[in-house]
Amino acid sequence: MAKVDYYRNALRLLFILVRGCESFSDENFPNDVGVFDGEVKLQALDFWIRYPDYLADELLAKYEATGTRRYLDTARRIFDDEEPDLRRVPMLRNYFGAYEPIDTAIAHLKARGLVTPRTKPLGKAANHRDFLVSRAAFDLVERIVAELPEFYWYESRVRLVLEMVDGRGGGALKQRQHEQKEYHETRRGDLIPTIAERVRKRLADALEAANG
Predict the structure, then answer these.
(1) Which residue among 19, 70, 126, 170 is least enclosed by CB atoms within 10 Å?
(2) pTM (global) more than 0.85
């Protein structure tokens, strides 16, 4: 990957970590005010941001379950803005689903005092990873949103994805994403394909029914 991709990835992950973390206080980490629990969850949220077509399908499912018109209109805007073509950042299929090594992007954030990754052993073959988020990270995101309107897309998209999460953990989110046939059946090491055409048809049917 080109170096610029790492910075883009770092920015996207920064927004996820800041907006998705929980309050944190520990005298051993005086500069940190938030903790994001779990790399699996981070990868799952990142997937929905990087694949607007899969997110739109989730919005349509939410609309069908609740009848809330906002979800349908948001899915429509994703396609009106051509996001499945312009905003998609492909991810590889690994053993358990969509995955991309994030160490380099996290290292950029750590070097600037924004995020501190921690690894905790769970057993002989497993580790759990969380991320401490500093006050400086919150301040930087607020400054980006206030001073660089071209990056507000990240702010609004992360908040939308967090709404779709509805309190679920990383394992449950991965399971939900595996319910998409194309995602689940992608071979390990291949890029997860778009589902834009299928979702576009589902959206058209939902709009026709709603506008009757």
Answers:
(1) 126
(2) yes
